[in-house]
Specification:
By secondary structure, this protein is an alpha+beta fold. The chain has 6 helices and 13 strands.
Length: 375
């Protein structure tokens, strides 16, 4: 397979996401509530066998931070990986952080969609480098991340979790070299299936990445511009550096703002030539949380995000902050208070170009909150 074929293999799943005037009726991307019980039951049976101990995976130390694409050891969550030839599964065990200044900057002690997405992303990258032979010089490019928490009401009790996916999901070129992996990837904690992630990530050689970036690639390694962020309490955060929204304007169900151009250490822990997709996703999530809290009159620290459908259609360049805007706000049908929620879609644009479309399922956390998960 030639370089052009690899690029086309990454583009094909994205064609239907190109910006053609987003229609509110077509933005719902998360599994409807009525289908959740069936989906969860289908994934329940085999998972108790997937614990670090039963898989022979160590949880004593973390892997070399280079394999997780991190500069700081405290940002590395993966402990060990293994290939299981009898089942064809690739697995990784890791630590779910409980005192991380960014990922645990919340008072809701529940599994969080974007937190688990980062955990699973790291697991796939470490597996790619250590088990699939992908060189450290390659670039990892996220195209889609559709994460669904299968036990959204469960408190975070596990210290460790396992991710597992089939090696048949690894895409290889004509020479047998891996160039991408597709979902589903499953996350198991305490022998319970807690999340499933369907998506597509590319492992691109420098020359292939350069061809994908083309003339749009900039030489900047940090965002340009200055913008005053909103207050942490408006988006369910405690620390100001974790707020990515500028001044929010417009009707609450159609709110918009600019992403704060900052070099947050969780995302800009190395020189980058574009805004990280997961940083934009966090900004989009914060806008959705703020909107849901205001529409429903819910305290923002009780708004929980437990499903996310992220589609990254183009790179967000560093020379101008992406503009975020809510384009769809769909409330649940009438039910009891514990079922109140909504699916909210936020697009990120630079000029007329859409860089990503992010849909979140948000709801009200009805159980008792912790006093604060980060110390």
């Amino acid at each position: 397979m030639h370089r052009a074929d690899e690029l086309d293999g990454l583009r094909r799943p994205q064609r239907h996401h190109r910006d053609r005037g987003l229609n509110v009726q077509t933005t719902r991307q998360i599994i409807p509530s009525a289908d959740r019980v069936t989906a969860r039951a289908a994934t329940a049976a085999p998972w108790p066998a997937y614990t670090p101990e039963k898989l022979g995976l160590s949880t004593d130390t973390t892997v070399d931070r280079r394999y997780a694409r991190k500069q700081s050891g405290e940002d590395v969550f993966i402990n060990d990986v293994a290939r299981h030839r009898d089942t064809g599964m690739l697995t990784a065990a890791g630590t779910l952080p409980k005192a991380h200044r960014y990922f645990n900057d919340s008072v809701i002690d529940r599994y969080d969609a974007l937190h688990l997405a980062e955990f699973m992303r790291q697991g796939v990258e470490v597996i790619a480098h250590t088990l699939l032979g992908v060189p450290l010089t390659h670039q990892f490019v996220l195209r889609t991340v559709h994460l669904r928490i299968t036990e959204p009401g469960s408190a975070v009790t596990a210290d460790h979790a396992v991710i597992v996916f089939s090696e048949t999901q690894v895409r290889r070129n004509g020479s047998g070299v891996p160039y991408a992996a597709a979902g589903p990837v499953h996350c198991i904690a305490d022998g319970r299936h807690i999340a499933r992630c369907d998506g597509l990530v590319g492992f691109l050689a420098p020359e292939t990445y350069g061809a994908m970036r083309g003339e749009e690639q900039k030489r900047l390694d940090a965002p340009a511009g200055r913008l005053v962020p909103d207050r942490p309490q408006t988006v369910g955060r405690q620390f100001p550096e974790n707020v990515f929204l500028g001044q929010v304007t417009g009707p609450v169900r159609e709110a918009s703002c600019l992403l704060v151009p900052q070099t947050h250490p969780t995302f800009f822990d190395r020189p980058l030539d574009h805004y990280p997709g997961m940083m934009i996703a966090e900004g989009a999530r914060q806008l959705a949380v703020l909107s849901f809290a205001e529409v429903t009159g819910t305290p923002v620290n009780r708004v929980h995000t437990h499903d996310a459908a992220l589609n990254f259609t183009s790179f967000a360049e560093l020379d101008t902050p992406p503009a975020l805007r809510i384009v769809s706000w769909v409330a649940d049908e009438a039910g009891n208070a514990a079922d109140v929620g909504a699916e909210i879609t936020v697009v990120a644009r630079q000029g007329a170009r859409t860089t990503s479309t992010c849909t979140f399922r948000v709801s009200i956390a009805t159980e008792a909150l912790t006093e604060g998960r980060q110390s």
